[in-house]
Fold this sequence. Notes:
Strand content: 25-35%
Distance between the termini: 41 Å
CATH architecture: Alpha-Beta Complex
Number of domains: 1
Largest sheet: 8 strands, mixed
Order of helices and strands: EHEEHEEEEEEEEEEHEEHEEHE
Oligomer: single chain
Radius of gyration: 20 Å
CATH topology: Spore Coat Polysaccharide Biosynthesis Protein SpsA, Chain A
Helix content: 10-25%
Structural class: alpha/beta
Amino acid sequence: MPDPIRILIAPLSTHERSGWWHPDLGRFVADLPHLNGYATAVCPLHNFNPAAAARNLICKRMVEEHLKDFDWLCMIDNDMVPPTNLLDTIKNCPPEAGIVVPEFSMFNQTEKKLTLCWSFEGYEGGGVKLSRGFHELTKCGTGVMFIRPSALLKIEYPYFHYVYDSDGVQIGTEDIAFCQKARMAAVRIFGNNRIRVGHYKSVDLNVLAEMLFDKKVLDAKQDKSVDFVPGTASPAAPPAETSPVEAR
């Protein structure tokens, strides 16, 4: 029997929703001892503000004290909804992968747009067909992120930081800055869309209603055989083959 994969799980519960955890995150952590093939430890990161500080401290501690104790560090934000098989994100991943993330999305209320928190070379926007499996990325979100401890040795500290303009206005988030640093250090990033993770956010229901109405109108215009009446359910559509792929 092969040795279990050793993973340090670090849930972040910071200022968002006063340190609240999504219930499914709590259930996931409670079930960790019962998972086969993995040896896990949990280190909650509570009440760090900003979140980049929590990420830096756990990564620094991993390098200085536990470099050989774990195969992976997994950071999970408190608003993520992990499936039971989340740890399979890194199962059979490319050996050159230093960072691996599952598939998860975010919602842009201003643009009324749901986007996947990934980006990759040659992508210029719009829908794209992706096979299920591992895809090399240029950027990704940190909602759920697996990092090999050895990869951190190549990246300049602080690993995570925000980007500001000359007026002190924040213009970049810690996830994008980290990915840029990692790639400059030749650390490769992969996404695994076999594993999908929920992302729990507060959303204006009026925005969702407008999106649904706009979609119904579009569906009706594209299918002339459908008698469309606003406010009624549109015919069921087959699962989409494409996903909008865009790093946040």
